[in-house]
């Protein structure tokens, strides 16, 4: 596969899971680091996300766990909470994921991630989230 | 629910997903911080893990993402890679989870977690892991 | 103790140390993750903070050290610098805590935390902080 | 104060709170980075620890909170759990500090720090730790 | 060297590499923690940055790697991306540094740092950054 | 460039900078996650390290800053302190890099990295490191 084909592959995946939000991130890199944009698309979304063996819903569960634990990744959490909804996770499940993560990374990071979810859900008219 | 009932609830869950490994961690806390042992069992496993709305397999995906990203949690990764196998994730899926996490937390943490998986899989006679 | 009693216990403690700021955080969780709000109150403030053996002033010293070192916890630092004042730490002591933490987590995290303290102290009319 | 006086100041403090353990760390830097050894002594212990306005017991509470939250600092936790005992914190208080920190940095880091405390307490014949 | 001389030394270095941005940070500490301001200047810039054996350009490469990996240090990245330009790193090199760091700390932290670079480069009229 | 060509490219680079140590890491992944081994070689060393615009010596400065700050990456620091020597950094410069990083990530992480350097330098008969 050529560099361009890897990029095209990644772009298809990026659009599928992140919609316009992912594209906007790549666009905003055009005048500062187009290569970082290329690597996010061609490597992360083209080479890794497209691999068989782990469905997209599972990948988003891992991603939410990792981004919540890392801390300071609120912009990426915003993109990937949208992505989580796009690949079939429900608002209730996402909220439960963030509560669960508190066990491993503590209350502050779980709270920060939950307030990002609140922003995303508000924009998509998904509030209030009711108990499962 | 009383404090003891919450603990019993948690112990049942702990045994179900972590088997003896979880029990050993709690036992080794007995002479230094029995209360931390109580909180891990009663709160983490009793109050959080037993909640409806997110299956145990999903919880382990989130846990692996969080522990890999945190770094320095090799003892907990060992327990939870065992747990992941116990709740139905395959070795191939676990390996893919750790590869996926490299996108978010970088190669060193993904490598460290993968070598913990290698140790766990060796003990359970699950090596080599073949491509999916 | 029942789930409701643990929550009531925590609410009393939360109001005592965080005042309105803590309540606001819980309120803002009501439409997104009332369970996370419950766990912060019932578990963190009800089960842990109320334990004997470590006075509230000591708990805030530990909390400030942990939040400063974690990074990316500015909203929680804001709440807990207020809490530190509420349980008897002086502005001079809080500033010294953040300077001390620089030894362990480096200058950037100490600076970020100190600028949160500046915001809190300004709101409470405690600036300038004079040398001890 | 001269560079040597700052170092002497720091060495006095280091011996007071860390005893031989601190001296051993400095000695082991002699053939690789004597300047790092100098900075730990002269700056951290000489300039910062000796400042008025925060008693040594308070400084160790902050230090334990920060080191637990950082993760991967087990060697430093070993030195500073010893230091905490040396400046008057009881085993019960130290164990409570580490439990408290779980609220902010999650269970894995609290567990890792607690097992370091177990090692230190065993060496000083302080096990088992009984409830306060 | 006296405390004041160490401070003067540091101030000269701070102005040389950070220009007005560094001075502003120190000024903004005057009413909250003048001692933290003193330590940043006298210790970090006076004692460490002025040491022989590592040129300033090399020190900024290390600093950018560390700040990107830490996460949550966007204010410090802003100061030090300016500093990197001031000591001779080109915009292309800085962008490449941040891309390189993605290998070690993952895409989110590399993206966050790159968007800080975009802000700094825009203020200094250095956009677009063209391929090397 | 094909997947195999990217891998061959990366392998050439890996051998050039990491020597046998890098190859050993890849080999040890063969029975657990050959794909992670492939990505480290083909992406990190093939796609990123081979890019023009930043010399290998500069890349190692960034890498050491990032790995020191991350914490818990001692195995990777061992590989990359060797790599730093291989691409022309002197022991004195490496030691200075780790001292410099203390400003940004605190003393514990700088100490941990320095003790990894001591191990590597001992194996390569480079101790004691003398002042520059």
Automatic annotation (TrEMBL), chains A, B, C, D, E, F:
This is Carboxymuconolactone decarboxylase family protein. PANTHER family: 4-CARBOXYMUCONOLACTONE DECARBOXYLASE FAMILY PROTEIN, GAMMA-CARBOXYMUCONOLACTONE DECARBOXYLASE. It holds the Pfam family CMD. InterPro entries: 4CMD/NDH-1_regulator, AhpD-like, CMD-like. Residues 34-118 form the Carboxymuconolactone decarboxylase-like domain. SUPFAM superfamilies: AhpD-like. It comes from the Bacteria.
